Amino acid sequence: MPNLGKMPTTDKNVLFVSMTNAANGAENVLFMAASAIGAPMMFAKKVNSGGLDIPSEQSSCYASSNSLFVGFFKLIKLLKPYRKGFILISTHPYLNAYLGFLRRTGYIKSQLIVRECTSVFTRFTGLKKMSYKLAYYLGYPGVDLVVCQTSLMRYQFLQHISFIPNQKVIVQENPVNLKLINTKAKLPLNDPDTTANYICAAGRLIPEKGFSVLIHAFSCIEKQYPTLKLLILGEGGGRAELIRLIETLGLTDRVILKGRVDNPIPYFKRARICVLSSIKEGFPNVLLEMMSVNPSVVATLCAGGIEAIPGVLKVKPDSVNELVIGIRKALDKNIVGSSLITKQYLHNRTPPIFINSLLKSLSTVNNL
User: Fold this and answer.
1) Which pTM does this prediction carry?
2) CATH number of 178-347, picked from 3.40.630.10, 1.10.357.10, 3.40.50.2000, 3.60.20.10
3) Helices 320-332 and 211-221: angle between axes, nearest 10 degrees
């Protein structure tokens, strides 16, 4: 059982701080980086289910098991041993701003690196967008280094946040843990839905992931490929709406919502093709996982940087027709093994490279 409110002692001078331990993209990035250098992790809230698979030897603690509000308040006490002489690394604008504000007040004197998990100014509108703007204004002046996942994200950030010097905002691509992925890919997959040909997609069941577009695209090709299924891995608030769409299109036996899957990698590996159907993303880490084990991947241009990724069939986002064309091309191609250029691309994005690059960038900024 992980510690709740007590952090094991460590001689590492880096601490990773996360909103929750949910096994989502942003949290996984921090977990990969922390594991790469054996650094401790701190979470504002512990989720009840679907959390990161943190090994017992990984130092970790949780401020709260009830709510983020309580967790943020209790973080103040938990951070006390790390107020000076550390490098704090966090992700998510609200948490980043909170830590930045604590630094502005002088409570935190350690250096602070924050990672942008999405382009909030293009993704959100109304009151939520205003709340993010306020958070940036209050906390980000206390930040030492801002890490964006893509050049587009950096451009959008600087367009809206004028009080952060350009040299403090860098681009660092998300890491991918190939060793762990290859290990997970070898684990058994006892699922009768995977005995037939299938297309695989994965992500939270929310509109931004574009699963309704993907289901409509599948409905356009399902008669051409009568033995093919579509498996969607993940859970979320949009499940009921997607079920209604599947029933309306008469695809109940062909499109399967698998729910949350602890290990999606074997599903990706065995799929006829993998599809990333997102409409808008910061950067989809699941794309890297798919590429790691399956040579046939279709991805929408839902984030900056995807256009430069080798070995992926790319289509415009939020377009049924574009996705149909891409899926048909991928299904009709006879691909055996991923290309050397794709493998090299992935090997250049390992967790050690990621964290070492961040620390080097921080040192460079400090010396300016």
Assistant:
1) 0.86
2) 3.40.50.2000
3) 60
